[in-house]
Amino acid sequence: MTDTLERVDWHHLDDAYQAYLDAVPDPPWGSLMAQTIVTGPHRRSLFASLAVEPGWTVLDLGTGFGPIPIELAHVAAIRAIGIDVDRRLLEVALDTAGALDVAGWRAPGASVEFIAAGGEAVPLPDDSVDLVTARLLFQHVPAPGAIMNEARRVLRGGGRFVIYDVDDGLSATWPPESPETARLDAAYAAMQSRRGGDREIGRKLPALLAAAGFRIEQICVLPQASFAASAPDDVFRQVTAARYLADREAMIATGLVDRAGFDRCLESFANEAGVARCRFESQVAVVAAKPLAG
Are 94 and 123 in contact (CB under 8 A)? Predict the structure, then answer.
């Protein structure tokens, strides 16, 4: 996988996603696609740790618009499969992969496919997958053990499950966010918790994987540190504001903010003058293996 770090044409995938955003006025999944574009460099920096080999079958859980299958099929002759419960996202993933294939994006011998399914019921045979990936999925799911059991079922003996996810307890900001932003963050976290999610899932992943029968091979924290002022027109500010707006009603339903308060807080967040803040934002990466039979 050394070639992954040397590719210079990753922007073609980002351009394809951006073309969708430009063509569809105010899509309901717009903030998610914008986030997919913005986080592309960080996602790709993780590929070397996957150690993908030609001939493998790779399964990506909660694939969304399919960036991981599409990108891994760009660098190795693998069978890449992405599954997600949202058919709208998979339609975009299929169209994007097809458009890139016309331009010769896919590595010779590679294939990409997308399946509408949940991680609790993967429509693949036992012992048929070499690598399962899940990036920023488990923070959203109410029953992570069920998905881990299913990943173990489809993996071949010795196959690996690689998870990247959040743990808000490992992140910090100084000076603190404004009271309005803190209120929005609290409402968003409460909304996610009410849906069965967990913003501190990162620290729990190793124990959950062990309980599902995996052998833990590696655990690491992937930190990102910065000291900068965010202006209202910064892409990160715009993406975050769009994410809040997309979940407006669900955030209000937590009772931590009413409609008028939400609108005031969002306006304040979107237009706050740049304040230089030191940010430590971390994700947890866990590599686990399915033990060999016997």
Answer: no
Q: Which of 213, 199, 212, 215 is nearest to 286 (CA)?
A: 215
DSSP code, position 230: P
What are the two backbone dihedrals, phi and then psi, of residue 272, each rounded to the nearest 5 degrees?
Answer: -60, 130
Quote the tokens at residue 238: 């715009």
Residue 149's nearest CA partner among 126, 165, 167, 130 is: 126
- Phi, then psi, of 174 in degrees rounded to 5: -145, 135
Distance CA 245, CA 259 (A): 11
Mean pLDDT, 10 residues at a time, the chain of 294 residues = 50 89 79 83 83 96 96 95 96 93 91 96 97 96 96 97 94 93 94 92 97 96 88 82 91 96 95 90 94 81
Strand 57-61 and strand 79-84: pairing? parallel
Residues with Cβ within 8 Å of residue 224, at least 6 apart in sequence: 42, 279, 280, 281, 282
Identify how many contiguous H helices and E strands the chain contains and give both numbers. Answer: 11, 8
| Beta carbons within 8 Å of 20's beta carbon, 6+ residues apart | 27, 33, 92, 95, 96
Tokens read off for 68: 């991981």
8 A C-beta contact, residue 120 and residue 146:
yes
> Taking the complete model, does pTM exceed 0.85, yes or no?
yes
* Cα gap 204→44, rounded to integer Å: 24
Neighbours of 201 (CB within 10 A): 22
pLDDT tens per residue, range 4-31: 334 558 889 999 998 888 888 777 777 7
In this structure, are residues 55 and 36 in contact, taking their beta carbons and an 8 Å threshold?
Answer: no
- Residues 129-155 as b/e (b if ≥16 CB within 10 A, e otherwise) read bbbbbbbbbbbbbeebeebbbbbbbbb
